[in-house]
Amino acid sequence: MKRKMLLAIAAATLAGSALAATPAVTPGDVAKGKVIAEQVCAACHGADGNSVASANPSLAGQHAKYLENQLKAFKSGERKNPVMLGMASSLSDADMKNVTAYFSQQKLRPREASDKNLLAAGKKLYKAGNPTTRVPACMACHGPAGKGFSDQYPALGSQHAAYIVKQLNDFKAGTDRKNSIMADIAMRMSDAEMKAAAEYISGLR
Length: 205
Known about the structure:
It contains ten helices and no strands. It is mainly alpha-helical and about 200 residues long. It has helices at about 1-20, 30-45, 65-75, 80-90, 95-105, 120-130, 140, 160-175, 180-185, 190-200. It is about 55% helix and about 0% strand.
């Protein structure tokens, strides 16, 4: 009994030490982020993160850490995009944290699918995948409503369908986007499946 108590105390001490060693995460400054968004990002992504051009993703409501990671990937050249390289290169780590905090708190405007004839096929793929080609259900990582999870799986709901298709093709080609999991999934998807899934996703709330 005494040994169990000693072990429990030791475990608690170690856990406390580990927590104490974990650096506190400093939240971004939303007010400063708003200024950056208006000066640097608004032309392509909208001042409130709601893009009007299908080539540019809407950023409103996206997970802050996911956006921050993408900006760092653009700046380092891990993601290859000349325009975003130029934009990200002008931002410090603090700037990135601030502007992504701002966008994460903006309200995403709901969008409707432009081709409703593809909704049934897109819904099936999103919710159940394609067992024949081993394409997993999109919702397994991005959630039933496309909200995503933390910094690893981005929110997709109400995103431009054309932008989603472009990203899937980039994953498939291994050009701008390098992600082994998404590359494998995209390789198994037909062009028709990509478009159907994207149309369904664009209407998710």
